[in-house]
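Re: that backbone. Tokens:
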């Protein structure tokens, strides 16, 4: 209960000279509480085996605390401060308090204030007995010139009283307060140990975010029992995560705890009864005779009653089926309030019915993977590998799986570079058995052979990522259960789905893919007797030597991986009677060095089980007419030499005419440049849904062959430049007039006002419209949803398109003869995307006469459009407007601000654009790069996170930029780039832009975020506490680097460009070297950012990464007290993708700085914002219709302003500006 007041700062070197010895330090006023409350609390903590330091000296000697007390405070994990009536009358207590708060600041010590018999406001404001005590202290220390010390005491009392604590008046009797304190300390200690035990944390790379999320789910609704599921693929870290959470919580408020590991194995080995009794024994601590009363699936009422009265925590690890879970928890769903069950599993179906929340564990990010791998690959005595490329290859192989990283790291430990390279080559073919065996458990758990077959198809025959629709189409043979099979694979984490993607993208982890390929490889030694073939070299041998057998079901042959031309045997497929999938493809059909040839042609031996047939660069002029393709679902012949599908117009002899290709749903003949015609598909393939004829440049006619396909939804005619029907339409002058008038009705009203000779001309044209062979009367299939007409020779939009009520996507980009769009385009009520890029003759965008409720994307980049109409406000759902390189546009319509959903506006290269109208409120991305006539940016919207104004050489000013403070989580990228804007005025350059640069950094502290900021200037912002001229800097590391106060890391340079740079890119490289005391600590951190620089100006460049984006080693560098920053530039040639050095002749780094961002910076930013509020009051009154009631534009760190904790941030408005640092 004493404290030093002369030297309150703790030297950094002292940080490394002590270890935490005590769990708790008790600070109290002896005469008030020693023999009552403090003693009771000490005994209760001791009973829970919480090691507590309590000074047993009753007399205070001198004005300073003893070295023993000082050391005890530093060696404690948690300090409990018992504020009582006479606490402030003791200088020992006050000095002790100051020292405790120093330890909180420097080492992250947890501080818990207890207000015993005194109101917190008395402590905070020093009223009552505290006011009397300080009057005496001021009188006493005034004579000693110690008023500065008195100020420190006052500040310490205010700070401590604002911390979250407990008030004795809220607990009666007093024993309940003691019990609550012990529970809280028991809960805090495991968390403290996890965060402060550096060796432990170093082995838990990338897990902290997961722990926080799980604990937040566990704490929801504390009055009820909850089941939380942890779901993920094998080796992803589910058990580790559950173990850490269990360790943190098991010694806290729970009365019984149990961790059942390997439930799947134990259940199979010993049965449910053994596991159930083990669980109950650990939870209830009851004897064997009572346990006999319990049976699986029927709970004993006696045991159930005991469970209902006891708050328990249980972890059921690796549960494989609902039956296992039911056997363990059936009858115990009504546990005592506050009880928690954590279940880990690879099968989400286990959790769907019972879990309150399910948390999916994702793989490690690359930087975390590298960290974990290094930890296991480089021990104390093994040298570090200096080949970054090789390191990245090994880490990439593991693809974020922690188990694989640990196994590979341990395997490669102490091995040479040559051995690493050899091992990596072998792993590509023969995966590590320990990894494969761990993953194979999930495959063997697929009891359905059909689902196992689907898994093997995907593992061997599919690319790394694919759409679900494509997989179902490719694998569905009509009577199979592919849809449910894929769902089961997703549930068991054997494939992953990205539900955020619109195309429902699926992906199989590389290690799972290898595991599946190993299963197939083990089927037979002979290649031709394996069910699936995917290795290019193996397939070459089989096709050349006719080695295939009836065992082969699927072939996936990537021709990009062959190193020679291959002559395919004429009868190569004759024995493959069970072939379902034949996929011969190229990564790039336009750049294939080697090809497959059929010198003797191809026998008609593709059997009727074939459902998927792809042959890129197919070498023959037609398909053999006797191919049996009655079950074919997809036909893909990209870049083929085919001239017609079959070498005669009649259908193959074995077809029933009405049957044709009844299963065919997708046909892709794109880039078949010799294809002249296609047959009438309405009879041959009536179920076609998608046809791709892109760049079939010899094709002259399409619509008659497809217009009766009522199931056709996707038609791609991009680049079919010889299509006659569109040429005929474009040549018809009367048709162009018809389109311009908006259709036949408007056209008739027009000709009524014209001469009869014009009417006669029109009548003749109408006659030609109905004449045989007229292309103008041909229509598109009525149910089209996607229509691509890019680069077609048309001058006007065919009116039949306007009748396509279900059309969702229309692409008419690069139609360079297109001169007009009909106003009836607004009739396309389902349209979501309209692309008119590089329609250079299109000078006017049509009036939008009616609201288009679904159009979200409009692209007019490079078009000849001179202006957009005010009626653009009728595009009420527009989210993205892309108008890059529209060199004739000078102004945008004022109604642009009415587009309330517009989030992205791309105007790069609009060289005549002079000003912008008021911008939409939801705009988050504004790109005006190289708008060289633009002089002023208007008020930027509140939520604008990306502003790219590079090379706006006339830009002079930005209006006051009011930032919206948002609670951003997840992945967040911020861009602020004014590179090359040399005319910016001083206020914009020195105040507005730097302020918002700092704001963008502080805004993103809760997210896995990145920020790259650039603007003209020669001063590093004051927030960079460590800065210097030149390219190097010595840094005294902040003490908070290793606790929750640390938020992120920012680098800054001032770059001077002296000479035009011959290449496009300049890379700014940062290296932070730690001065290590312990050689076992990582010693450096690298980062870089790139800019395009060709303007002779000084620029400030800032790069920021949140703590969640940084390697764990940086956050664990408690062994370092100093560091040095070295910055250098290099040049990047985009054409050859290489870095090189041009020296300082072209550009030079004049200054550098580094900023370790912490919570105090947020608070300081708040204070400065409040101070500047009066200066902005005029702006607020003018532009804010609903000024904030609190009048504060500030961040709100966690733990402050508790009265605002119930603010609903799930429904933000543009006036909500509160932000919490989590």
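Recovered sequence:
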């Amino acid at each position: 209960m004493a404290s030093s007041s002369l030297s309150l700062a703790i030297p950094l070197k002292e940080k490394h000279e002590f270890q935490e010895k005590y769990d708790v330090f008790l600070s109290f006023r002896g005469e008030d509480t020693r023999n009552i409350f403090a003693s009771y609390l000490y005994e209760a903590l001791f009973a829970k085996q919480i090691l507590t330091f309590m000074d047993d000296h009753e007399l205070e000697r001198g004005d300073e605390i003893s070295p023993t007390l000082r050391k005890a405070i530093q060696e404690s994990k948690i300090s409990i401060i018992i504020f009582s009536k006479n606490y402030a009358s003791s200088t020992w207590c006050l000095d002790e308090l100051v020292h405790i708060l120093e330890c909180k600041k420097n080492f992250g010590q947890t501080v818990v204030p207890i207000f015993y018999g005194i109101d917190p406001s008395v402590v905070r404001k020093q009223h009552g007995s505290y006011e009397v005590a300080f009057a005496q202290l001021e009188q006493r220390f005034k004579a000693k010139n110690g008023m500065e010390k008195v100020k420190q005491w006052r500040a310490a009392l205010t700070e401590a009283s604002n911390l979250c604590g407990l008030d004795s008046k809220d607990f009666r009797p007093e024993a309940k307060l003691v019990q609550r304190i012990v529970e809280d300390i028991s809960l805090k200690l495991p968390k403290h140990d996890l965060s402060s035990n550096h060796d432990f944390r170093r082995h838990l790379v990338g897990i902290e975010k997961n722990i926080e999320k799980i604990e937040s789910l566990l704490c929801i609704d504390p009055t009820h029992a909850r089941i939380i599921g942890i779901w993920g693929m094998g080796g992803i870290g589910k058990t580790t995560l559950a173990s850490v959470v269990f360790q943190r919580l098991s010694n806290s408020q729970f009365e019984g705890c149990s961790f059942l590991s390997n439930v799947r194995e134990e259940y199979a080995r010993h049965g449910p009864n053994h596991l159930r009794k083990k669980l109950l024994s650990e939870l209830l601590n009851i004897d064997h005779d009572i346990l006999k009363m319990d049976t699986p699936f029927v709970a004993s009422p006696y045991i159930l009653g005991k469970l209902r009265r006891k708050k328990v925590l249980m972890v059921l690890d690796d549960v494989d089926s609902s039956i296992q879970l039911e056997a363990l928890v059936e009858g115990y769903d009504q546990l005592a309030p506050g009880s928690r069950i954590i279940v880990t599993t690879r099968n989400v179906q286990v959790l769907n019915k019972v879990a309150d929340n399910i948390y999916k564990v994702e793989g490690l990010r690359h930087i975390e993977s590298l960290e974990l791998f290094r930890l296991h690959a480089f021990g104390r005595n093994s040298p570090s590998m200096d080949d970054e490329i090789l390191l990245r290859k090994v880490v990439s192989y593991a693809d974020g799986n922690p188990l694989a990283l640990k196994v590979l790291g341990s395997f490669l430990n102490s091995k040479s570079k040559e051995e690493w390279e050899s091992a990596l080559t072998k792993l590509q073919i023969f995966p590590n058995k320990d990894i494969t065996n761990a993953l194979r458990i999930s495959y063997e758990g697929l009891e359905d052979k059909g689902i196992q077959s689907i898994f093997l198809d995907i593992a061997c025959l599919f690319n790394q990522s694919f759409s679900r629709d494509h997989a179902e189409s490719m694998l569905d043979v009509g009577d199979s259960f592919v849809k449910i099979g894929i769902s089961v694979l997703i549930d068991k984490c054997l494939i992953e789905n990205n539900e955020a993607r619109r195309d429902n993208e699926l992906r199989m982890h590389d290690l799972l893919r290898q595991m599946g390929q190993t299963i197939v490889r083990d089927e037979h030694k002979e290649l031709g007797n394996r069910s699936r073939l995917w290795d290019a070299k193996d397939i070459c041998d089989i096709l050349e030597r006719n080695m295939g057998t009836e065992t082969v079901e699927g072939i996936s042959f990537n021709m990009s991986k062959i190193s020679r031309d291959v002559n395919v045997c004429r009868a190569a497929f004759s024995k493959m009677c069970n072939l379902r999938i034949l996929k011969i493809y190229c990564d790039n059909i336009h750049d294939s060095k080697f090809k497959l040839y059929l010198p003797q042609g191809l026998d008609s031996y593709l059997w009727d089980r074939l459902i998927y047939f792809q042959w890129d660069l197919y070498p023959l002029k037609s398909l053999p007419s006797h191919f049996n393709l009655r079950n074919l679902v997809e036909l893909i012949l990209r870049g083929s030499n085919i001239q017609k599908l079959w070498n005669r117009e009649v259908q193959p002899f074995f077809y029933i005419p009405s049957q044709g290709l009844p299963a065919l749903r997708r046909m892709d003949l794109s880039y078949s440049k010799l294809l002249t015609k296609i047959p009438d598909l309405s009879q041959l393939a009536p179920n076609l849904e998608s046809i791709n004829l892109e760049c079939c440049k010899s094709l002259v006619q399409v619509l008659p062959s497809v217009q009766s396909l009522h199931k056709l939804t996707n038609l791609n005619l991009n680049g079919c430049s010889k299509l006659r029907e569109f040429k005929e339409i474009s040549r018809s002058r009367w048709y162009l007039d018809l389109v311009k008038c908006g259709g036949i009705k408007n056209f008739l009203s027009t000709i009524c006002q014209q001469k009869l000779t014009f009417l006669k001309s029109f009548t003749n044209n109408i006659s030609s419209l109905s004449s045989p062979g007229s292309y103008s009367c041909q229509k598109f299939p009525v149910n089209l949803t996607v229509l691509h007409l890019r680069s077609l020779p048309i001058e006007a939009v065919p009116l039949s398109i306007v009748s396509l009520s279900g059309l969702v996507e229309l692409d008419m980009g690069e139609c360079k003869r297109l001169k007009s769009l009909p106003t009836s385009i607004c009739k396309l009520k389902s349209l979501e995307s309209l692309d008119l890029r590089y329609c250079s003759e299109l000078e006017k965008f049509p009036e939008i006469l009616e609201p288009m409720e679904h159009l979200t994307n409009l692209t007019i980049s490079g078009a000849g459009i001179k202006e957009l109409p005010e009626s653009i406000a009728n595009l009420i759902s527009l989210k993205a407007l892309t108008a890059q390189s529209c060199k004739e546009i000078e102004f945008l319509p004022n109604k642009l601000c009415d587009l309330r959903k517009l989030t992205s506006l791309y105007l790069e290269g609009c060289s005549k654009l002079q000003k912008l109208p008021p911008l939409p409120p939801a705009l988050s991305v504004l790109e005006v790069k190289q708008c060289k006539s633009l002089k002023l940016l208007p008020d930027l919207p509140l939520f604008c996170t990306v502003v790219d104004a590079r090379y706006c050489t006339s830009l002079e000013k930005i209006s006051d930029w009011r930032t919206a403070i948002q609670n951003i989580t997840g992945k967040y990228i911020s861009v602020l780039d004014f590179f090359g804007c040399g005319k910016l005025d001083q206020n914009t350059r020195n105040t507005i832009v730097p302020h918002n640069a700092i704001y963008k950094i502080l805004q993103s502290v809760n997210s896995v975020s990145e920020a790259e900021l650039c603007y003209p200037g020669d001063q590093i912002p004051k927030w960079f506490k460590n800065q210097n001229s030149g390219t190097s800097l010595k840094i005294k590391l902040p003490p908070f680097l290793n606790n929750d106060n640390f938020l992120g890391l920012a680098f800054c340079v001032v770059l001077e460009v002296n000479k035009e740079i011959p290449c496009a890119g300049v890379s700014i490289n940062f290296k932070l070297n730690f001065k290590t005391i312990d050689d076992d600590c990582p010693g450096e951190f690298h980062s870089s950012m790139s800019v395009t620089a060709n303007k002779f100006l000084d620029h400030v460049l800032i790069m920021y990464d949140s703590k969640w984006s940084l390697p764990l080693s940086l956050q664990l560098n408690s062994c370092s007290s100093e560091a040095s920053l070295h910055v250098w530039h290099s040049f990047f040639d985009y054409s050859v993708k290489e870095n090189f050095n041009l020296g300082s002749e072209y550009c030079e780094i004049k200054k550098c700085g580094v900023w370790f961002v912490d919570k105090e910076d947020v608070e300081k930013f708040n204070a400065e914002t409040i101070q500047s509020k009066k200066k902005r009051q005029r702006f607020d009154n003018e532009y804010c219709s609903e000024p904030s009631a609190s009048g504060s534009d500030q961040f709100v760190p966690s733990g402050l302003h508790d009265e605002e904790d119930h603010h609903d941030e799930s429904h933000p408005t543009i006036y909500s500006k509160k932000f919490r640092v989590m």
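The mean pLDDT is 80. The longest strand covers residues 1120-1133.
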